[in-house]
Specification:
CATH class: Mainly Beta
Shape: globular
Structural class: mainly beta
CATH topology: Lipocalin
Radius of gyration: 22 Å
Number of strands: 19
Order of helices and strands: HHEEEEEEHEEEEEEEEEEHEEE
Length: 429
């Protein structure tokens, strides 16, 4: 562990001395905000995404070695009034440096580590090496082996994937296939979380999933230009009709039957319809968008326990405002979302427990709080989210507040998150 930090400090020291002679820096100049790149995401905190390397960046980085610095500080507070989860607060930081070498115009090798620390712990919470081979044979297809683009980058809804996992379970290792065309965008991955050594009394654990967004129609698409900047590259204006489809499976099992645990596989599916209308300001480079999302969720479990699964319906309405300054390389965004969740025996192994039903604990043999004795398996929840982000020359700041009001229990869960993130590339040779 000490050697990894010493290596990073040595590289940074070398870069500092080199910058005095050569100011060449490899800095991405496209907006970091995913919605400004035409991505239809469900989560509000866009700075928590990791945008995959583009074909242009692969061509520019061919036969070059760069040091990529990714540093984040965070504070998250979960105040749960309902009995479905226990509240917690965490403050900390994560450092994720990586050496990236352009093998050719279509491939890249990345080697580094992830170090996460929580305030109040005398040692690191987690330290893991990272290794990625990235290959983009075409403009619309990218293959990743090793450390993949995981966590919130999968663009899963909070009921399927808890955004707070970005803090304590950020890294994913396995295989990934990414596609992006004008009418179809997808992410298919395998995350192997626990390896089963042959002939040991243990269980393997892995997660596989796929998320797709299909653009089924678009109308009155406009093209705006401010001061010679073609914003059509970054945002689609007008009406869009999209179809999001998500599937995720979590498996725990193995070939050795000498341990007294069940082989459990949970499945979650989501299919919905998104109607989005975007328009721009006539005088300044800013975007406004309204999005109506109506999605159906499904859950079922396969193990020795009889479980008939569950389902849910979740319509949401969101508004987003994005202001982008080309010359100052900054943007500011504000987003508000309101929704109504109706869940019937619903559960997701990676989703936020705020959307779970009481039956999930007994089905998965999870010790439940005594206060769940009077809880119902049918949940009716009003959800509200407000977030603001600011990016200035690589430094990102984000603030998000979530409120979930349980109509049956008449209690409100509150979540508060503050994030700072710095990402930069330095050319070594």
């Amino acid at each position: 562990m000490k050697h990894l930090f010493i290596l990073t400090l040595a590289l940074l020291t070398g870069i500092a001395s080199t910058q005095a002679q050569d100011t060449t820096r490899v800095t991405p100049r496209h907006p970091h905000h995913p919605s400004a790149l035409g991505i239809s995401s469900d989560n509000s905190m866009h700075l928590l995404y990791d945008l995959p390397v583009t074909n242009r960046e692969l061509i520019q980085g061919c036969r070059h070695l760069t040091l990529d610095i990714d540093a984040a500080g965070f504070f998250f507070d979960a105040e749960y009034a309902t009995p479905f989860a226990k509240g917690f607060s965490v403050a900390g930081f994560r450092l994720s440096p990586a050496l990236a070498y352009g093998i050719n115009e279509r491939a890249q090798l990345r080697v580094g580590f992830n170090a996460t620390a929580f305030a109040g712990l005398d040692s690191l919470y987690r330290l893991r090496p990272t290794f990625s081979l990235i290959y983009a044979p075409t403009k619309w297809l990218t293959l990743v082996a090793g450390t993949i683009y995981g966590s919130n980058t999968h663009q899963l809804a909070p009921a399927v994937y808890d955004p707070a996992r970005w803090i304590y379970d950020y890294q994913e290792d396995g295989l990934q296939i990414l596609t992006k065309t004008k009418i179809w965008q997808s992410d298919t991955w395998l995350d192997w979380t626990h390896y089963l050594t042959p002939w040991t009394a243990d269980q393997e654990r892995f997660t596989m999933g796929t998320s797709h967004i299909f653009r089924i129609a678009k109308f009155n698409i406009e093209k705006e230009v401010w001061n010679g900047c073609d914003l059509d590259k970054y945002n689609q204006l007008g009406w869009q009709f999209n179809l999001p489809v998500h599937f995720i499976a979590s498996h725990r099992g193995g070939e050795v039957k000498t341990i007294d645990t069940n082989t459990v596989t949970t499945f979650n599916e989501r299919v919905g319809l998104q109607i989005k209308y975007s328009f721009s300001n006539t005088f300044t480079p800013s975007f406004h968008s309204f999005k109506l999302d109506a999605s159906l969720y499904n859950y079922h479990l396969e193990d020795n326990t009889p479980d008939h699964g569950g389902k849910a319906f979740y319509p949401t309405l969101s508004y987003e405002w994005l202001h982008w300054s080309q010359y100052h390389l900054s943007h500011f965004s504000l987003r508000a979302t309101a929704g109504f969740w109706h869940g019937d025996h619903y559960f997701s192994a990676f989703g936020s427990p705020l959307f779970w039903s009481a039956n999930a604990y007994s089905a998965l043999h999870i010790p439940a709080s005594p206060s769940l004795a009077n809880a119902t398996d049918i949940r009716n929840i009003l959800t509200f989210t407000l977030s603001a982000e600011h990016e200035f020359k690589g430094l990102n700041l984000g603030l998000q507040v979530d409120a979930l009001y349980d109509l049956d229990l008449r209690k409100t869960d509150l979540l508060f998150g503050f994030y700072m993130r710095f990402k930069e590339k330095f050319l070594l040779f």
